[in-house]
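User: Here's a structure from my thesis project, written as structure tokens. My advisor, Dr. K., wants to see whether a designed sequence matches the one we expressed. Can you design one independently, without my sequence as a hint?
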């Protein structure tokens, strides 16, 4: 397998994935239909690299070298050169299925096709291709340059060879890969999202303010970030999408999204990215 990487989607997860691979010496092509998003992604990567220089984790000349390894393209045909393609689009099943149908045609026959999905079935995604043995989940955590975990999700047909290769690449970019099986929400969000959802119910029912709920969890449970602040960081639309996957896939009413979460998403209060969620951001 060649070691060129293609990342589909230039949002907060896509730019972070491109950042860590380029920092580890890989040539990366970041692909998005929006040239504006691609430029915004490069600006974000540049700012994050500057922050690393200030912290002393990379040398002052490293940002130029790292950015030099990242190409930006609006044409998905460029994935033909990649040995590993990582889809990091919005958490929407139909969109991901469409992307993988396209990758079936455009990616090299021996390329590994990975999805950064946080909840959608890898087995279902793989069904959209004729190479399900080469399809796998690589669920990075946000912010990608900081968080060590990559949740590696095997679909029903994912091969041992594909899994071993992706675990090796994850380790080479400084991450800790943890292998899990393909169930709705995997491990991370099956545990996390019910906690966030319950925090939203506490807010809706007047048990406490958003600040109080988050303080109880940070000061009392030693969480680095309260559940409502974390939901704002993830994006409330993404939280709602994951809960719907859990509810549909497992059929248990305990995963029913809180009506207040639905109301905030309907209002466009999606968290940090819109300046307002359960907390306000400048």
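Assistant: Designed independently from the structure alone:
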């Amino acid at each position: 397998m060649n070691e060129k990487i293609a990342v589909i989607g230039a949002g907060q997860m896509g730019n972070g994935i491109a950042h860590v691979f380029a920092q580890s010496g890989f040539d990366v092509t970041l692909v998005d239909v929006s040239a504006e998003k691609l430029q915004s992604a490069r600006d974000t990567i540049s700012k994050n690299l500057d922050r690393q220089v200030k912290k002393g984790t990379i040398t002052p000349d490293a940002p130029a070298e790292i950015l030099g390894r990242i190409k930006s393209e609006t044409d998905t045909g460029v994935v033909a050169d990649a040995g590993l393609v990582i889809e990091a689009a919005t958490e929407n099943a139909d969109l991901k299925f469409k992307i993988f149908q396209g990758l079936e045609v455009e990616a090299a026959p021996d390329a590994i096709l990975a999805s950064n999905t946080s909840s959608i079935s890898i087995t279902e995604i793989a069904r959209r291709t004729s190479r399900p043995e080469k399809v796998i989940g690589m669920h990075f955590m946000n912010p990608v340059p900081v968080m060590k975990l990559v949740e590696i999700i095997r679909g029903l047909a994912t091969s041992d060879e594909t899994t071993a290769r992706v675990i090796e690449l994850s380790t080479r970019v400084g991450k800790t890969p943890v292998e899990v099986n393909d169930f709705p929400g995997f491990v991370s969000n099956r545990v996390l999202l019910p906690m966030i959802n319950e925090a939203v119910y506490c807010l809706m029912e007047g048990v406490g303010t958003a600040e109080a709920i988050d303080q109880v969890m940070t000061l009392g449970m030693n969480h680095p970030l309260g559940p409502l602040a974390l939901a704002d960081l993830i994006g409330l639309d993404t939280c709602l999408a994951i809960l719907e996957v859990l509810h549909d896939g497992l059929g248990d009413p305990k995963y029913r999204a809180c009506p207040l979460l639905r109301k905030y998403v309907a209002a466009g209060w999606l968290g940090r990215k819109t300046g307002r969620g359960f907390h306000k951001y400048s």
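When you compare it with your expressed construct, this may help: Residues 152 and 179 are 5 Å apart (CA to CA).
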